[in-house]
Inverse folding.
């Protein structure tokens, strides 16, 4: 008779987490597709020891956010809305205006919406670094290139 094998789920400990740095070039890629791939890496779903209740993702540096594409007529019809908390402070912008003014914010909000709505979302977003052009300040970390599928 053979001994029973344990089917216990292993919980990742801090020494099991080796956080890597990835760099993603989103020029000429669609916003939603890039955001889903980046959200997977931030969350750590591509790792063997992934568990939902732990933060085991990697750092992601996104470059060329200014050159991301949107399909169809979303550039003119997709609206981003917020309120300033002052009377009459409702503001809105189209995706085209957001891409011209703050392209980092456009990608940030797409990724933010794809992460789980719990206490871990803030720690996931702290490891996201978005830049509008190709220059970035994270060369010292030697990020690996992450190709979007």
């Amino acid at each position: 008779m053979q001994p029973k094998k344990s089917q216990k789920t292993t919980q990742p400990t801090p020494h099991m987490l080796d956080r890597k740095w990835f760099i993603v070039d989103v020029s000429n890629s669609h916003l939603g597709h890039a955001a889903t791939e980046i959200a997977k890496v931030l969350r750590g779903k591509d790792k063997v020891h992934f568990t939902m209740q732990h933060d085991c993702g990697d750092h992601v540096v996104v470059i060329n956010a200014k050159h991301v594409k949107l399909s169809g007529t979303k550039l003119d019809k997709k609206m981003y809305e917020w309120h300033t908390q002052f009377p009459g402070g409702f503001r809105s912008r189209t995706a085209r205006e957001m891409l011209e003014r703050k392209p980092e914010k456009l990608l940030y909000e797409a990724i933010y919406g794809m992460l789980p709505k719990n206490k871990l979302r803030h720690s996931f977003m702290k490891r996201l670094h978005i830049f509008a052009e190709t220059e970035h300040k994270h060369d010292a970390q030697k990020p690996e290139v992450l190709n979007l599928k």
